[in-house]
Design goal:
This protein is an alpha/beta fold. The chain is built from 14 helices and 8 strands. Helix 4 links the parallel strand 2 and strand 3.
Length: 300
Amino acid sequence: MRAFLIAFFAAYANLTTAMVSPEVSAKTYGFVGTGTMSSAIVRGLATLERPPAVILISPRNAAKAAALAAAFPGLVTVAADNQAVVDGCEVVMIGVLPTIAEETCRALRFKPSQTVISLVSTAPLEGLRVWCAGVPSESVVRAIPLPPVSKHEGATILTPPHELAVAVFSALGTAVPVATEETMKKMMPVTGLMGQFYAMQRATQTWVQAQGVPAEDAARYVGAVFHCITYDTAEAGAETFDHLVKEQTVGGINEQVVRELTEAGAYDALSDSLDAILARVEGRPAPRKLKRPYQATDEA
């Protein structure tokens, strides 16, 4: 049985790798800006079973650029400047700070045959299409990936549903293309939950340690448990989360935690935070909420 399972999962891994679009590997890629997200995408592309032949990166962040070139010699090349990046590739990723996005893009000369994918979280499509003059509007894409794209486990929302862009981010994890920028904006606040997820893990580790468990054991187990319980939701359908919550045994420990956090208003607070983030994304005032801190004391 063990040998069968090993063979099965090996075959499955090969199958999923083979499903990556050949077009992804056939293209050449350039990165204007070499920040955290650009670096993660470079690492993801470079470690595909069939990586692209050319990845050009901006010299702007010298340390990160040098590290990528050293990690993938012969594949990743540091270009002389941003224009050299654009001149040498078919797919241009824009990964600069929002404050300089317009200035950076307007200074570049693009070709009609190129695809431009913006990683700038606040740069609107309308502006990008003007700034990247010469590129057809349908070939200018906004994408919001998360860092695990470096390990082919990312989650990326993008608009419009450009075929090549969808294929690229599908190769690096899960791509969720949406039809409009307005829909994308309403999904963007979810990326703000990453920090609270880590904070919840930290609080759990702190509690376990308070029970006398060594810090190393507490951290390792908490990390493994949280990683484990997300597996059933990696490719969620519309009813997945509702089903998983409802299947918790009434009176069991999982149901108890959900019930007690609901009573404490934890999920209402989460919804309020998402409302406030959406307001920031859409550039409007956040709803004003009268919030009271959660308190619990032992009954006398």
